[in-house]
Amino acid sequence: MNILALCTTSTSGSIAIYKDNSIAFISYLDIRITHSERLMPQIAFGLEQSNIELKDLDIVTIANGPGSFTGIRIGLATAKGICMAHEIPLLPVNTLELLAYNLFGSNRDILPFIDARMGEVYAALYSSHIKQLIPPQNVKPAGFLQKISKPVVIVGDGLASYRKIIEQSKIDFLPALPHQNIPLASTLISIALRNPIPDYNFDQIAELEPFYFRKSQAEITREKNRENK
Predict the structure, then answer these.
(1) For the whole prediction, is pTM greater than 0.85?
(2) 25 close to 4: Cβ distance less than 8 angstroms
(3) Domain range spanning residue 138?
(4) pLDDT for 38-90, tens place per residue?
(5) What one-character-per-residue DSSP string does the chain give?
(6) Angstrom distance (rounded) from CA 28 to CA 25
(7) What pLDDT, in 10s, does the model give residues 152-186?
(8) Which CATH number goes with the domain that contains 7?
(9) 193 and 176 assigned to the same domain
(10) I need a labelling partner for 175 at 20 to 30 A (CA). Which of 15, 48, 89, 151 fits?
């Protein structure tokens, strides 16, 4: 099984390659140099280091949002191009589920909490073995926290942004460790290995859209400008 995993949903990005029953390559990217400039060169470097070619891949998996609008768009376009050119199946994964997998096997429910800006979060709730308990949503932090009745571990950058609100909610929570708060391509490989390989479907891949939850700030501004004309 050969897997290429891409994650470009946050202020960082990562690539991982799985070959011969082990992770053969991991690269962590700094978004200050944009994903568009570094993604394909890093993929090419990873394939070279792993001694495989794109045509050797059995599946490509990608974090498909929510998260950085630009990063998700670049990552998905790259994954779709690779898959359609080489007839490789594509497995998209929600970023909240990806973060939950960083705490797989926890003795508490897992609450991914991503800062969505504008006083909101992307949030969901999963069991310790990643059964979805509350579906992913874009909400005000306090409103979502009212739904939590059992002890949880919170993962993601939303804890740092909204810690005061979380503490005021009186829920029983533990914070994830710093390295667990990062959505990583290597975790995507674990997810892909736990799921059946999807069939290659050109039309489904071509029509796949990022999981944004809401419009970007640029789109909101454009719509307001049109309404004001």
Answers:
(1) yes
(2) no
(3) 103-181
(4) 788 999 999 999 999 999 999 999 999 999 888 899 899 999 999 999 999 99
(5) --EEEEE-SSSEEEEEEEETTEEEEEEEEETTS-HHHHHHHHHHHHHHHHT--GGG-SEEEEE--SS-HHHHHHHHHHHHHHHHHHT--EEEE-HHHHHHHTTTT-SSEEEEEEEEETTEEEEEEE-TT--EEEEEEEE-HHHHHTT--S-EEEESTHHHHSHHHHHHHT--EEEPPGGGGS--HHHHHHHHHTSPPPPP-HHHHHH-----SS--HHHHHHHHHHHH-
(6) 10
(7) 999 999 999 999 999 999 999 999 999 999 999 99
(8) 3.30.420.40
(9) no
(10) 15
136: which 2 tokens?
């992913």
Sheet holding 59-63, edge to edge: 22-30, 12-19, 3-7, 59-63, 90-93
Domain count, the chain: 2
One-letter identity of residue 119 = G
- In this structure, are residues 119 and 109 in contact, taking their beta carbons and an 8 Å threshold? no
